[in-house]
Amino acid sequence: MDAIEASTVVYVPRREVFEFIQGYSGATEYADHVERVRQFGDGGPGTDYRITVSWWRFDYTAVTRVTDVDPPTRIDWRSTKRPEATGSWHIESVDPPADPPPDVDPETATELRLRIEFDPESVLGARLSGPLPVEAVLDRVKPVVVSESEAAVAALVADLEGRRREVDLTVHRAPRSL
Question: Which residues of the chain form beta strands (DSSP E)?
Fold first, then answer.
């Protein structure tokens, strides 16, 4: 499994961040290749999300299910069809940095972390037009997964705080080929 993890500090109380993520369905505004997100459930265990993605020669709907929640710190999920993936949102109160952005309450500093583990070869289960070597497809998919994850976390911060600002985003990738 490959993995990507993106984290940042948002200046909103942890409970508000958790509730926002739990009711999250605005990914169409956060990612260029996400066309539609439908939520079936209240955001708790058993809630399904159907995420329709179109990019390059791909056109598919990923189906994920919330597997566990630990309010207000964690939401876990897994895909129920290809591509094979698991993920989690981690929401932790943190000490404010020495130099917080202007016009924020540093006492509400909350780390928001998204971790996704995925089998890159399972992406090939999506509808792909035309024959291509597996390596060519994977070479195109990996950078998109990384950039879309980065964009989603940055846009979430803007929605949570009510305004856009420069976001310090830390991205960890494994393996290094991502």
Answer: 2-11, 34-40, 48-55, 58-70, 74-79, 85-93, 109-118, 127-128, 170-174
| CA-wise closest residue to 25 among 54, 53, 49 | 49
Task: Please check whether residue 107 is in contact with residue 96, taking contact to mean a CB–CB distance below 8 angstroms.
Answer: yes
Q: Domains in the chain, please, with CATH?
A: 2-174 (3.30.530.20)
Amino acid at residue number 175 = P
- Is the Cβ–Cβ distance between 175 and 9 less than 8 Å? no
At residue 129, does pLDDT exceed 80?
Answer: no
Does position 110 have pLDDT exceeding 60, yes or no? yes
How far apart CA 7 and CA 11 sit, in angstroms, is 13
For the stretch 45-65, pLDDT in tens is: 999 999 887 776 667 788 999
Cut 0.70: pTM above it: yes
The residue among 97 and 13 whose pLDDT is bigger is 13
Query: What are the helix (H) ranges across 54-176?
Result: 134-161
